[in-house]
Amino acid sequence: MKKNLLSLFVLIMKVKSRRFRLPQLSYLAFFLLIPYCQGTLAQNSPNFVFILTDDISAEDLGMYGNKHIHTPNLDRIAGQGLVFDNAFLTTSSCSPSRCSIITGRYPHNTGAPEIHMELPEDQLTFVQLLKQVGYHTVLSGKNHMAPPEQLGFSEFSDSQPAGSENWVQHLKERPKDKPFFFWFASHDAHRDWQINDKGRVYDPEEVSVPPYMYDGPRTREYLAAYYHEISRSDHYAGLVFEELVNQGILENTYFIYLSDNGRPFPRSKTYLYQNGSRTPLIIFGPNVKAGNTHSLVSSLDLAPTILNLAGIPIQESFQGVSFMEILKDHHAVVREVAFAERNWHRYSAHERMVKMGDWLYIRNNWPNKINLSGESDPHMYLAAQELWAMLDEGELTQEQEFITKLPQPAEQLFHLKKDPHNLVNVVHESENKEVLAQMRLLLTRWTNETGDNIPDKPTPNKATLYGDLLEWERGETPGEATKACKINHSGPVFID
Q: What number of other Cβ atoms are within 10 A of residue 13's Cβ?
């Protein structure tokens, strides 16, 4: 009986489609088979180590060309695995990004699109599905989503300062008769900076200041501390990889490394420019072909990909697409467009982004509102404080003072190869009319099909430009009026 049921299950799992989705009847049948097949599944299923760092931009790692920050372990792992050059987040804000990743849904479809909102209980996570088929599931480090047991984790731990101190111990103490999924989420490189002996200490003179940030002593001091925390993230990633080798389980384990949002500096974290929305993504594992891929993927796609690799059906609530075929064929195309959103994060915001080919398009639905977040607030952190001080002194370049200006552009268009820092808005160039029209249409389709909307009474600013904290309460959030948390449509994935 068990053998026959398992054969039926294997037949179901061999159904091929680009999105690897099964009808609801097959999905129900799958879970009816779990009690009979779980032991066999556990024996043959791959393991997963999923390392999610906090506040690290792709361009701040060695495998993406950074020559200033020491990341030898990640560089070595990247040399053996696959580096994604075009992996984009659905938002560049901590908790909304994490909730999006774990559900495989856009932030306005999760019911938690703004910072510090808890994921609703009725939102399905891919970790729940892994646990249901017998995976040992652990969250260690930063959570920032919902109670761990609600998310599907069997165990939870946290630690300071890195959030990474328990990772190797979890690997050592895991049940040896189950496949495992470890969600290892570091606090690094989130403020407040804390220096210790687990990463290289940098001199402020060593750092490289991006052109949109003011190059001054306080900014350099802040960047040097940030560099240290990136190196500490590298240190713990190396320890985890070494433990997988020591236990002899590396050949059956997928090692995945990424970040939830861009670096915590002005014009990076929360912003939809490439340095805020592009995430590092490294995958090492069984049958993963080493190298680099320029194929476009979204953080939305991680959930269906992991389920695909584990041999678990992808339910309709997941809006992403599996990129499993890219792991073997670096030229495979699973999507041609990716979308991202920027919502409230200390300040009101409603921006939407489309990534297509070499182009990045941003629509600002509130161009008359100040274009700030906590990391660019003139009163909170050193780099922003220095930038605003130099604005008063008249010492900023046009690129550096851009986020301080009102009004902001309602539309921005950037050519990423020619302008990797997204400093030159070419939305009004006549030769770009066709691509602009196409990206406008794609964004409008995505808005309509996924139930995105502009709130009538949004969450107000939490502070003023003068540093005064305001009395505030959460307002209407994007997707709330349209009940977007019940909508499963993915929006456009390919260009028609």
A: 16
The residue behind tokens 């070499």 is 358
- Give the tens place of pLDDT for each residue, 25-53: 444 444 444 443 444 454 679 999 999 99
Q: How many CA atoms lie within 13 A of 451 on its CB side?
A: 21
Q: Distance between CA 100 and CA 109 in Å, rounded?
A: 8
CA nearest 20: which of 274, 310, 244?
Answer: 310
The percent helix, strand, coil of the chain (3-state, each to 5) is 35, 15, 50
Tens digit of pLDDT for each residue in 255-293? 999 999 999 999 999 999 999 999 999 999 999 999 999
What is the band of 429 on the pLDDT scale with cuts at 50, 70, 90? very high
How far is residue 80's CA from residue 73's CA, in Å, rounded to a whole number?
Answer: 11
Q: Which two three-digit tokens encode residue 299?
A: 């953080």
User: Which residues share a beta bridge with 51?
Assistant: 184, 257
Measured from the Cβ of residue 432, the count of other Cβ atoms closer than 10 Å reads 16
DSSP per-residue string spanning 174-219: S-TTS-EEEEEE--TTSSSP---TTS----GGG----TTS--SHHH
HSE toward the beta carbon, residue 102, CA cutoff 13 A: 38
| CB-side neighbour CA atoms (13 Å) of 98 | 27
Round to the nearest angstrom and report the end-to-end CA distance of the chain: 47
Output the six-digit token pair for 174: 């895991």
The first and second tokens of residue 56, run together, are 């690290």
Cα angle 199, 383, 462; round to 5: 110
Cβ contact 377:387 at 8 Å? no
pTM for the structure as a whole: 0.92
User: Is-contact 239 246, C-beta < 8 A?
Assistant: no
Three-state DSSP state, 33: helix
Q: Give the list of residues 6+ apart from residue 16 with CB closer than 8 angstroms, or none.
A: none
Can you say whether the dihedral through the CA atoms of 131, 308, 444, 271 is positive or negative? positive
Q: For residue 484, what are the contacts with CB-CB under 8 A and spacing of at least 6?
A: 108, 109, 450, 451, 452, 453, 478
Per DSSP, the residues of 36-52 read HHHHHHHHHPPEEEEEE
Tokens of 275: 């340095």
Q: d(Cα 304, Cα 254) in Å, to the nearest integer?
A: 14
How many H-runs (helices) and E-runs (strands) does the chain carry?
Answer: 14, 14
Q: Is 371 exposed, middle or buried (0-12, 13-18, 19+ CB in 10 A)?
A: buried
